[in-house]
Design brief:
The complex is a heterodimer.
Chain A: E1 3-5, E2 10-18, H1 25-35, E3 45-48, E4 54-67, E5 70-78, H2 86-92, E6 98-104, H3 110-126, E7 136-141, H4 151-158, E8 165-167, H5 176-194
Parallel strand pairs in A: 2-5, 2-6, 6-7, 7-8
Antiparallel strand pairs in A: 1-2, 3-4, 4-5
Chain B: E1 7-8, H1 10-27, E2 31-36, E3 41-46, H2 49-52, H3 54-74, E4 82-86, E5 91-96, E6 101-107, H4 113-139, H5 142-154, H6 158-164
Antiparallel strand pairs in B: 2-3, 2-6, 4-5, 5-6
Helix pairs in contact in B: 1-4
The chains are: A alpha/beta, B alpha+beta.
């Protein structure tokens, strides 16, 4: 839920990066963290296991400046992708304003993509959200791997509402900011619609 | 998805800050925060706030409350109404003001858990009506706030959004 401090003319939005295990959600946040002006970002927090798998969430606060007189802050979260962390995923979706689904382009991970997307729909429903109405962007990550599933095939399996999609190579930053920007745009546009 | 969420007006922020300031001085605490359950900071008082990284504190506190709540439900409890983390020097007490708002108090050896608990109970009693008023005004005058947001965002352009990422 967008938090508006009317007195301070400040808007806080929460974007959650969702997707199957090892699809690159944390890598997206790391790239954003590394490439953002230190003045506009907070500390990136990763609650990870010893093997650097996300255990609870990663968190990155960004203050991107003012828009029409409102200071706009985005809080980026990732969920743990591994199937058995579903209880944590449910918690992190609470109060979400926008979702980025990071899909893995490897053939072997297509089932995991589909399963994670289904899980996202179910978990959004628990919070009273619907994937068809929530601001939502699809990222096709790992486009540089040999034998990546062709884009049309991925779209036909994963696209839910003609949402924006971006081809990405997260460790090299390809498509990372484009994805974030599109998510931010959808949230800001939804603000005016909801008003 | 809606922005029908929380709209806090200036005088309410002042009231919240006053209650936190009183709590902090009466309990000898280092800092006190009000945080919503989604991890957004609502108000904070303390001398060295910036060194504490309030944004991360808020987010992690909300995560802590969320996971503890889920644990409570797993064992058939409705909730654990307060959490205490005790460190060698610094400790924290996390208490629920209502179903949406968390009160976090950081304290060290200059205070004690008993004193903090006592003062937190008193502060919570003062905070509850303020948040009831926040909800009430959000429902009535909130329209004015929403209208201001709507006006600000009605003519949002791609350039506006691009400028955020420039």
């Amino acid at each position: 839920m967008t938090f508006i401090n009317y007195a301070a003319r400040e808007i806080n939005c929460k974007i959650v990066y969702y997707g199957p295990g090892l699809c690159g959600k944390t890598t997206n946040l790391q790239w954003i963290y590394e490439k953002t002006n230190p003045a506009t970002k907070g500390k990136m927090i990763s609650l990870a296991t010893e093997t650097e798998r996300t255990l609870f969430f990663d968190f990155l606060p960004l203050e991107l400046g003012t828009i029409r007189g409102f200071r706009t802050r985005f809080h980026l979260y990732t969920v743990p992708g591994q199937v058995f962390y579903d209880a944590s995923r449910k918690l992190i979706l609470k109060g979400v304003d926008g979702v980025v689904f990071v899909a893995d382009s490897q053939t072997a991970r297509m089932d995991a993509n589909v399963e994670s997307l289904r899980n996202l729909k179910d978990n959004l429903k628990l919070h009273g959200f619907n994937l068809t109405t929530v601001p939502y962007v699809l990222q096709l990550n790992k486009r540089d791997i040999p034998g990546a599933v062709p884009v049309p095939e991925m779209l036909s399996a994963l696209r839910v509402k003609n949402e924006d999609y971006f081809e990405a190579v997260a460790p090299k930053g390809v498509g990372v900011f484009e994805t974030l920007k599109a998510a931010a745009r959808h949230i800001l546009i939804s603000l005016k619609k909801a008003s | 998805m809606s922005i029908s969420g929380t709209i806090i007006f200036e005088e309410q922020v002042q009231q919240l800050n006053q209650i936190l300031t009183r709590l902090r001085s009466e309990s000898n605490a280092r800092a006190a925060f009000l945080i919503d359950r989604n991890g957004q900071q609502i108000a904070a008082v303390g001398d060295d706030l910036e060194q504490m990284d309030p944004t991360s504190l808020s987010s992690l506190t909300a995560g802590n409350v969320a996971s503890t709540d889920a644990l409570a439900k797993l064992i058939g409890e409705k909730e654990f109404s307060a959490l205490v983390h005790e460190g060698e020097r610094d400790s924290m007490l996390i208490a629920m003001v209502n179903t949406r708002i968390i009160l976090l108090v950081l304290f060290d050896e200059r205070s004690s858990l008993g004193l903090v608990r006592l003062r937190v109970r008193k502060a919570t009693e003062a905070l509850v009506p303020v948040f009831q008023e926040v909800d009430k005004r959000s429902a009535s005058d909130g329209a004015q706030g929403k209208a201001a947001v709507a006006a600000a965002f009605a003519e949002i352009t791609d350039d506006d959004i691009d400028s955020l990422f420039a």
